[in-house]
Amino acid sequence: MPRDFKFTLLKCRIHSLTFRAKSKAPQGKIPINLTISHKYTYDYKSKTIAVLISASVNDKGVPFFLEVEYEGLFTLNKRVSKKDVEPIAQINCPAILFPFLREAVAEITRRGGFNPLMLPVINFVQSAKERKAKTTPQSDDS
After folding, report:
1. Domain spanning 7-132 has what CATH number?
2. What is the pLDDT along the chain (142 residues), one digit of tens a residue?
3. Domains of the chain: which residue ranges?
4. SS3 sequence, the chain?
């Protein structure tokens, strides 16, 4: 990967948000099954990367339903190949956006009358490795 290019966050915002309280806030800790995902598009001509990171909570035992999509637009100082953009778009950009998503989720749940839901820290490097391992065909050398 060439090291002679830079990227900058131009803007970020909540793209979509759905929150519904199902019942009163229970006492104690609520076990939550959280789904976090992200995707991106790279526009070679405009030298921009658009990243969408999302979090969703929809378990039967959880007293609320939550889906949040947070988007960020990044710009590169020069045009680079999709191959060179891939690590930035899969690791760096989501890692930059995640604290914004995390803060939004905590604030939304707090304003919904529940204890703030603090999303766990995510290792985007490890997530990218796992995603790559799933998409890379396995050889039968055994």
Report:
1. 3.10.420.10
2. 456 789 999 999 999 999 999 877 666 666 677 888 999 999 999 999 999 999 998 887 788 999 999 999 999 999 999 899 999 999 999 999 999 999 999 999 999 988 899 998 999 998 888 877 887 765 555 4
3. 7-132
4. CCCCCCEEEEEEEEEEEEEEECCCCCCCCCCCCEEEEEEEEEECCCCEEEEEEEEEECCCCCCEEEEEEEEEEEEECCCCCHHHHHHHHHHHHHHHHHHHHHHHHHHHHHHCCCCCCCCCCCCHHHHHHHHHHHHCCCCCCC
